[in-house]
């Protein structure tokens, strides 16, 4: 009984250390995912299909702000076909939370997308809030498995 009590006390004392170690892994993963989010946006603007093929998982569910859903191939093809065009993507806010010892991450943020000008020549901007789920594939690295966005009212100056 005394041994069991001692073991429980030792586990209780070790718990903060174990939790801290896990948090370090999650913190490192969160920083990595934040950088990858910015790289992915850049790849979408530059139409860098090599990067896009790598960062989107084969089972991607991409839900646009209008509710239309694409899988990986449909979404990448929409960029190739000019249906999804991005002149610029500005990250306004970005929050990454990593889980499972840095093997999964949930990202939420706000972005401003500069689209091709409207027919009258005026700027065409989209303000979005979004959520992304990324998982770390042992062979392929971090990959987006879910994207969902919602249009927001025009930003106030």
From TrEMBL:
Keyword Signal among UniProt keywords: yes
InterPro entries attached to this UniProt entry: DUF4440, NTF2-like_dom_sf
Gene3D superfamilies: 3.10.450.50
Record-annotated DUF4440 domain positions: 33-144
SUPFAM superfamilies, sorted: NTF2-like
Signal sequence range: 1-21
Pfam family, one: DUF4440
Keyword Signal: yes
Keyword terms of this UniProt record: Signal
Annotated protein name in UniProt: Nuclear transport factor 2 family protein
Organism this protein belongs to: Hymenobacter sublimis
